[in-house]
Amino acid sequence: MSTSTPNQIFEQIEQAAQAQSKYLKIQPGQTMVLKFDANKIQLVDREIENRKSKAVQYTVLNVNDGQEKILSLSLSWALNLNELLKAGYTNIKVNRRGSGLDTSYNFVPV
């Protein structure tokens, strides 16, 4: 019989769900180092809170675990990130702050 606490079990379930998803979910306050491929970028339509908008999907490789996922960003954040990609940077540290419509990102080449 397992001696895991409920919080440990919840964490294991969350990690398993994230591992199965093709999308990368960066949590508020989390920082990740991602490898970007400029040949794997798509402009897509999306709907958030009944508002249609454009977004940019980047296929990225998580440097820490080697998993390839899709990172979806709004156009405004994509413009910031694209400046680093245009300058030739591929390994970028991404930090997320806030949640929902108050989400912001910080991008730093490594």
Properties at a glance:
five-stranded antiparallel beta sheet; 25% helix; 110 residues; OB fold (Dihydrolipoamide Acetyltransferase, E2P); alpha+beta
The major β-sheet equals: 5 strands, antiparallel
Number of helices: 2
Mind telling me the CATH class?
Answer: Mainly Beta
**The number of domains:** 1
Low-confidence stretches are: none
Secondary-structure element sequence?
HEEEHEE
The CATH architecture term is Beta Barrel
Give an account of the 3D structure.
With 110 residues, the protein is an alpha+beta fold. It has one domain: OB fold (Dihydrolipoamide Acetyltransferase, E2P) (Beta Barrel), CATH 2.40.50. It has two helices and five strands. It has a five-stranded antiparallel beta sheet with strand order 3-2-1-4-5, covered by helices on one side. Strand 1 and strand 2 form a beta hairpin. The radius of gyration is 16 Å and the shape is globular. The N and C termini lie far apart (44 Å). 8% of the residues are buried.
